[in-house]
Amino acid sequence: MESLASLLHLMPETFWMIIKVFIVFLGPLTLAALLTWAERRGSAMIQDRIGPNRALLFGRWRLLGLFQLVADGIKFFLKEDLVPTDASGLLFWLAPVMAFVPAVLGFAVIPFGRSFVQDGHVFHLSLLDPGNGMGMLYPMAIGAVAVYGILTAAWSSNNKWSILGGMRSAAQMVSYEIAMGLAVLAIFVRTGGYDPQQIIAAQAGVWNVLPQAIGFLVFFVCMFAETNRLPFDFAEGESEIVAGFHTEYGSMKFALLQLSEYLHIVTAAALIVTLYFGGWRVPFVADPSVLLSVAAFVLKLLFFCWVFIWVRWTIPRFRFDQLMFLGWKVMLPLGMGNLLLQAWLMHRGA
Amino acid sequence: MAVLVKKVELNWLDRTYVWPVLMGMVITLRHFIKQITTRSSRRYTIPYPDRKRATAPGYRGLHELKRFDDGSIKCVACFMCAEACPARCITIEAEEYGDINKTQGFEEKRPAVFKIDMLRCIYCAMCEEACPKDAIWLRTDYEQASYDRLSMQFGKWDLMNTYADQDGKARITSDPTPTVPRPSVED
Description:
The complex is a heterodimer.
Chain A: H1 2-7, H2 12-46, H3 68-78, H4 89-105, E1 116-118, E2 121-123, H5 137-157, H6 160-191, H7 196-202, H8 213-226, H9 238-241, H10 251-276, H11 290-312, H12 320-348
Antiparallel strand pairs in A: 1-2
Helix pairs in contact in A: 2-10, 2-11, 3-10, 4-5, 4-10, 5-6, 6-8, 6-12, 8-10, 8-12, 10-11
Chain B: H1 12-15, H2 18-37, E1 63-65, H3 80-84, E2 90-96, E3 109-117, H4 126-130, E4 136-138, E5 153-154, H5 156-160, H6 164-167
Antiparallel strand pairs in B: 1-4, 2-3, 3-5
């Protein structure tokens, strides 16, 4: 790494930072694109169908329908970019970006492998080094900002379905953020810090899922609400409010909104892995090598991304009042109870 | 009409909602694994243009006007099919054979024009039922499509050749003149 960096006339740290930016930006982006494929093919398999498989590479190679992604991308780029006459011009353009940027940012703090030392330098496998003072508060904050993208898209479209969808989505995300915060708080209490490296270090013996099973349940359910996925996909609803907040969006703007939803899934899966499933830790291996740790993280990440798709095609939707009931009267007390339980256990010295 | 509302008493395990969801996920996973490990040829879905479904016996597809071995048409232009047709899509113009010795047995009529408007046809096979000579069959082909309406007007030679390639018969475009005179009604 030293020699590579010197070839480019860069400090090793700077060089490493650039690499990390590429990994953290392009990795989840690629994964999100692949998720759209996994969603369609996976749902097809779950429903005993076949799924998209007609897009061929050079008209010859099928490759499990993976080139549907490329075909979709080309189609999105070539589509006419329609803006409704009554839409608010600037905000209508800005909204997809406002939805996309927080979705990309969220991954920055997640460690995707163990830190290693080379030539006297410590290299951390997360975009923001540990001890940056933000820790796990950062993805939570960024996740909260994501609401604005949806709200702006809904408001600027000047369409009643969009506004209904945006409002439902905003109400849902805000309600579930409280329970999510409480669940995460219990982890912070147990760890004694909110830096992801610290949280992962604290999971050396046993992963957080076991002692914090209730907290995990609350956090997991809240993640579905935060990512606007089924069973809580109230931002859209074909039978009631058409496509919700992105009714009026087409071409690449729609693709950005869609991509940011899948990026949220990747980030949510990464948060679940980091907080509850030991991050890059490998079971029964006390001190994994760097590559092994990265592989373990990616594997867990992929599994939880798949769980998001899996759950979507299993459970029917909630009604909106049921969603609110669940959020305020079940998840919030459960999260609070979990926090109190953990605090009491701490007090007992367990 | 009275509606019977069936009340379902959920036990505590079901009311947690977590356990039933897990059971549901097991079901979907089972479907997923079964479908992903099934060979493409054994799945429910037939990838249509690549693989075609075999039609059932008795399927009523595209028509064929049958011919004798020497290539002469079996149809005697009796208009039974045109009368039976509920869609009124068959148009026949009959013609006489000049020389009775050259006809197929004792018939001296044949269609000069035999048209089926495939856009009107409802594939009910009433014509096949009505035909006294078994001269029109509805067979297996179900892929009729074209870019203009005119090419869906099937004439006599179109209809006689619809399954020529499939049956390995020669395509014919004119009424053959039998070389050997066949027995006529006088013989």
